[in-house]
Design goal:
Blueprint (H helix, E strand, L loop, with lengths): L2 H9 L22 E5 L11 E5 L17 H9 L47 E3 L11 E3 L28 E5 L3 E5 L4 E6 L4 E2 L2 E2 L7 H15 L8 E3 L13 H4 L3 E5 L2 E2 L2 E8 L2 H10 L1 E2 L2 E2 L9 E7 L2 E2 L11 H8 L1 H24 L2 E13 L2 E5 L8 E5 L15 H9 L13 H19 L4
Antiparallel strand pairs: 1-2, 3-4, 5-6, 6-7, 7-11, 8-9, 10-11, 12-18, 13-16, 13-17, 13-18, 14-15, 18-19, 18-20
Helix pairs in contact: 3-9, 6-7, 8-9
Length: 455
């Protein structure tokens, strides 16, 4: 299946996958692709044992699915590169060798057709087959191919990549220093945002940096900016250091892979939070009041339960300490009712699309926050987008509502600081190397799972 079709199915832009018409064997998929049915016994058109989606006017390899069964954890490992090959079936028992990940593939196609079936041929990056019952007839499977392993703009090799907790760019004015990012004023229209490896916990920046953290935040934001560009414009210009104006390229060792050149924007004064699950401060309010930011929710929900539908819960931007959850009415008093309605609708649309996609990659996006601003008169998405720092990512295969969930974030750091009984007053203690390394791996795992690529 062509990736644009799979993506539209995953994100809900294409809501149905119709069975072939008995006369012409063509499902109604708009202009995305044509449909052919092949018999797994004689290679002729027949009854739907194998399905091939071919773009009009082109010849592409046939991808068979429908009679192929695969456990979801196998598909996930294939998609994220943890399992690099899927071996052909053993001639005696027709069982592919997948280690301990799954026992068998049911009703395999004849060996004569294996050459037409990428999913059964040894390959460095075979397709991932995942069942998507809500989108298709239950007899069929949709093939979500591994995302192309292209180098994202601005990525660097992890070899000899140093931890950076502070940037210094002589000749470039630093406009702001946040908990993680250093922001520089390039000119009147452009900013340089550099994501360092700093990490904070309990409102304090720790002295120990987390390897690759800044690169993950930057590269994941770039991925989402591209993924969402048809929903909303954004402030991103480039992450290619060679395209930065002077004197920035001479600071390549500080900027490569962790920086973005962006448009200057007038940011609005609220953070736009979308919640699809009941967790964090939302759970605390619900437990006490039965509401989240004043929104009444059904009784009897448990911690980490999925909400009936995603909700918009704005927050104020705190320069120090925690952001404060506010009601829709309070947000309207701060930025105007028309604007808050606009960003509410946009926030929920972005969250819904991203969450649907992430589910196909084995990740639940429990909640996330966005920041919007104006470039001229145009409303744009800014700052970071759908990263482990701005979102709550849960692995889908360990999700069990009724309590806290394991997250792709800095939980190792929080757990360590609690274990040493730090009084949460300065100075913040350094982290052991093992805690920093395990936290780094969690960030990289989130990037690999969502993009299908390595840093």
């Amino acid at each position: 299946m062509y990736s644009n079709v799979a993506r539209r199915l995953a994100t809900g832009q294409l809501s149905t996958f119709q069975l072939p018409d008995s006369a012409n064997k063509t499902p109604q998929l708009g202009s995305f692709c044509n449909f052919q049915v092949f018999n797994s016994q004689n290679d002729g058109q027949s009854n739907g044992h194998g399905l091939s989606l071919n773009q009009e006017g082109t010849n592409v390899p046939t991808v068979f699915f429908g009679d192929l069964y695969m456990y979801s954890n196998v598909a996930r490992r294939l998609a994220t590169g943890q399992l690099s090959t899927l071996q052909s079936p053993d001639s005696a028992n027709k069982t592919p060798q997948l280690g301990s990940f799954c026992k068998k593939v049911s009703r395999l196609l004849p060996p004569s057709l294996i050459g037409f079936v990428p999913s059964l041929s040894p390959a460095p990056a075979p397709p991932c087959l995942e069942p998507l019952a809500p989108l298709t007839n239950q007899r069929h499977w949709l093939s979500f191919e591994l995302l192309p392993r292209l180098t994202s703009e601005g990525t660097v090799s992890p070899i000899a990549n140093s931890v950076i907790v502070e940037t210094d760019l002589p000749g470039v004015a630093r406009r702001a220093r946040g908990k993680v990012r250093d922001v520089y004023q390039v000119d009147e229209e452009r900013l340089l945002i550099v994501a360092t490896d700093r990490i904070s916990a309990f409102d304090y920046i720790l002295p120990t940096g987390i390897p690759d953290k800044g690169r993950v935040l930057t590269q994941l934001s770039i991925f989402w900016f591209d993924f969402l560009k048809d929903l909303t414009p954004n402030h991103f210009l480039t992450a290619n250091v060679d395209d930065y104006p002077e004197p920035l390229p001479q600071y390549r060792h500080q900027l490569q892979g962790r920086s973005m050149l962006v448009k200057c924007a007038r940011m609005i004064d609220i953070e736009c939070v979308a919640r699809g699950y009941l967790s964090g401060s939302g759970w605390k309010e619900y437990r006490d009041e039965g509401t989240v930011c004043g929104i009444r929710l059904p009784a009897g929900l448990r911690e980490s339960d999925r909400l009936p539908e995603p909700i918009f819960t704005p927050a104020t931007k705190a320069q120090t300490g925690h952001d404060e959850n506010i009601s829709f009415e309070r947000a309207a008093s701060l930025i105007g009712e028309n604007l808050v309605r606009t960003v509410r609708d946009l926030t929920l649309a972005i969250y819904t699309r991203a969450a649907r996609y992430a589910e196909t990659r084995g990740i639940i996006i429990a909640d996330t926050k966005f920041e919007f601003g104006f470039v001229g008169d145009e409303l744009v998405l800014g700052d970071e987008v759908l990263t482990p720092d701005s979102s709550r990512f849960w692995p889908a295969d360990t999700y069990h509502p009724g309590g806290p969930q394991f997250s792709f974030d800095k939980q190792f750091v929080r757990d360590y600081l609690e274990s040493i009984h730090w009084n949460k007053q300065p100075p913040a203690p350094p982290l052991p190397a093992e805690v920093a390394a395990r936290t780094s791996e969690k960030y990289r795992q989130a990037y690999r799972a969502l993009t299908g690529m390595e840093l």
